[in-house]
Write a structure and sequence with these properties.
This protein is an alpha+beta fold. 31% of the residues lie in helices and 22% in strands. Helix 2 packs across helix 5 and helix 13 packs antiparallel against helix 15. The N and C termini lie far apart (72 Å). Bound molecules: oxalic acid and manganese (II) ion (MN).
Length: 600
């Protein structure tokens, strides 16, 4: 099939990839419904995809990955820059020449007898000055169908690129043998290139997502003066119709998708508040012509974790995924060819196929400790299906950001919410993001894992330079810089019970944050930042659950714990710096200042 672009740079690169992988056939993805439907039909006929009940789940299909291939593989993910220091201590590094030399024989002829699909795609709305183009070649229809949901796929992507530009990200993916020992997810930021091999699973193979929109884009953003962040974007519409936009970065399993699609409690909806979703995972942020910081969601869909998603935790996500969705590694209810996962409801199907493909009795299987759906099973659903999708979702200019939130899962130490003193302090707060493992997950409670800005697996360069870039952005934004906050939905009491209800009630914290941005509410100045005054977090309707005593606990700043926190952060900075991170002096100074304030 003929190429879809006159761009010689694209055509030369695709020819090179064809010469390397030697496919039997090459198909350019034009983005038409007919072509995608034909591919769906083909995948259903070969068994790569499984049909689901088209009355109950219209447009939905199912895919099962190899059981050795169910998650992102951080230990096999590389950032290959010419100088090792440029990748920094948070990344695996290899010299690009060496890595190309190692991988080239693995790709040589890897698509023989197979079809290569060439997928042009845009990250960001077509026509947006913030959008970027990628081309992924792959031998997987699953990848094509997922990329069609997660990005803007087809000829239209080339409209953004034009006929001469070389500014596109070259992504090469081959399933090969799905051999975990030979699995590589490699970014070459200096070449705008990603090579992925021996995986067929989401984050490793949908190269527009983590590989491009975070790792490569964070590197591009540093060089071009913008930011690529692991952040949701939401808009809070107030009763007067004004919408305030907030971005938030949390590590995995801290509820980004849930916050992005939040349904406010009755006292807010009755007053006329609404929450609109712009994105649930990635934000690209750039200063606009008016000096403010604008955000776009480079994606076009949601690649959400299925287990735990239900009518209470996130009805909007559930409704989004009920049509036109690809389910990966969830369980199938054989009675009606629908899907099921843990915590969807209390009725696991009796006649079930578990995620690895075995037919089982669901309730019995679970009683024996089995998991019907893989804990990292996913839905890939189009953003257009989301009942609360923002009308600005496709706005090429993006949305103006009033507040940036960081957060993690912390049983103690970190209060429900606090505001940083300024952008530099906020950058420090982001650098200090860490999340605790739960007893259920690891057996050890309270093991702290650092995950700066929730970006540890995704920063495409040296973490110290990344923090320096944050500081540069703050300088450039000046008075227009969004306010930076930290939240913790996961504070526990002495018995390990969560003391904040979370989910929709997080709106109460967003409300305080917005009032702080507007300057309409006072705050308590503490050593760690500005905290809500008692009585300033609205608890209408949850007074019985969140009593003044609980609120005091939620907002408590424990001097002893914070002294430990500072010692831990000193260690962390030192460890990173010993391993080659160039930590900005301004952040070291923030640690000293925090320590001094706490000692007062
Ligand atoms: C992640 C994801 O792993 O969004 O962060 O899939
Ligand atoms: Mn993510």
């Amino acid at each position: 099939m003929a190429t879809l672009t006159k761009n010689p740079n694209v055509n030369a690169w695709v020819d090179e990839m064809i010469a390397l992988t030697k496919p039997e056939k090459v198909v350019w993805i034009d983005g038409s419904d007919e072509q995608l439907q034909a591919l769906r039909d083909e995948a259903l006929s070969t068994g790569e995809m499984v049909a689901l009940n088209q009355e109950k789940l219209p447009g939905c299909i199912y895919h099962r990955t190899n059981p050795n291939d169910v998650a992102r593989v951080e230990d096999r993910t590389f950032i290959c820059t010419r100088n090792k220091e440029d990748a920094g201590p948070t990344n695996n590094w290899c010299d690009p020449k060496e890595m190309y030399a190692k991988l080239t024989p693995m790709y040589d002829g890897v698509m023989a007898g197979r079809t290569m699909y060439v997928i042009p795609y845009s990250m960001g709305p077509i026509g947006s000055p913030l959008a970027k183009v990628g081309v992924e070649v792959t031998d997987s229809i699953y990848v094509v169908l997922n990329m069609d949901i997660m990005t803007r796929v087809g000829v239209k992507a080339f409209e953004n690129l034009g006929d001469t530009s070389d500014d596109f990200v070259r992504g090469l993916h081959a399933r090969a043998d799905i051999d975990p020992e030979k699995r590589y997810i490699v970014q070459f930021p200096e070449d705008n290139t990603i090579w992925s091999i021996n995986s067929g699973y989401g984050g490793n193979v949908l190269l527009g997502k983590k590989c491009f929109a975070l790792r490569i884009a964070s590197f591009q953003g540093k060089n071009e003066g913008w930011m690529a962040e692991h952040m949701l974007i939401l808009g809070v519409e107030k009763p007067d119709g004004e919408v305030k936009y907030i971005t938030a970065a949390f590590p995995s399993a801290c509820g980004k998708t849930n916050l992005a699609m939040l349904i406010p409690p009755a006292c807010y909806t009755e007053a006329g508040y609404k929450v609109w979703t712009v994105g649930d995972d990635i934000a690209w942020l750039k200063q606009g012509p008016d000096g403010k910081l604008y955000a776009i969601n480079p994606e076009n869909g949601f690649f959400g974790v299925a287990p735990g998603t239900n009518e209470k935790s996130n009805p909007n996500a559930l409704h989004t995924a009920m049509r036109d969705t690809i389910f990966t590694n969830v369980a199938i209810n054989n009675a009606d060819q629908t899907v099921w996962w843990e915590k969807l409801d209390k009725n696991p199907p009796v006649d079930a196929t578990e995620w690895k493909g075995a037919k089982v009795n669901g309730p019995e299987y679970i009683a024996q400790g089995g998991s019907l759906a893989h804990p990292n099973s996913r839905f890939t659903a189009p953003a257009r299906n989301c009942p609360c999708i923002s009308k600005e979702f496709n706005n090429p200019a993006g949305v103006p950001v009033s507040a940036i939130i960081f957060g993690g899962r912390r049983a103690s130490t970190t209060p429900l919410v606090y505001q940083s003193f300024d952008w530099i302090h906020g950058t420090y707060v982001g650098s200090a993001v860490s999340s605790e493992t739960t007893a259920a997950a690891t057996g050890a409670v309270g093991v702290l894992r650092h995950d700066p800005m929730a970006m540890k697996p995704f920063i495409g360069y040296n973490v110290g330079d990344y923090w320096a870039h944050w500081l540069e952005m703050g300088e450039k934004l000046g008075e227009n810089a969004p306010k930076i906050f930290n939240v913790n939905w996961f504070k526990q009491d002495e018995n390990g019970n969560f003391i904040w209800p979370g989910f929709g009630d997080n709106m109460r914290v967003l409300d305080w944050i917005i009032k702080r941005c507007e300057g309409t509410i006072d705050a308590e100045e503490t050593a760690i930042g500005y905290l809500p005054k008692m009585g300033d977090i609205n608890v209408t309707g949850i007074e019985d659950e969140v009593t003044p005593e609980i609120m005091e606990k939620l907002l408590h700043v424990d001097k002893e714990l914070w002294t430990k926190e500072i010692a831990e952060m000193r260690n962390y900075y030192k460890e990173l710096s010993d391993k080659g991170a160039r930590i900005p002096a301004a952040l070291e100074a923030q640690l000293d200042a925090l320590e001094a304030r706490l000692a007062k």
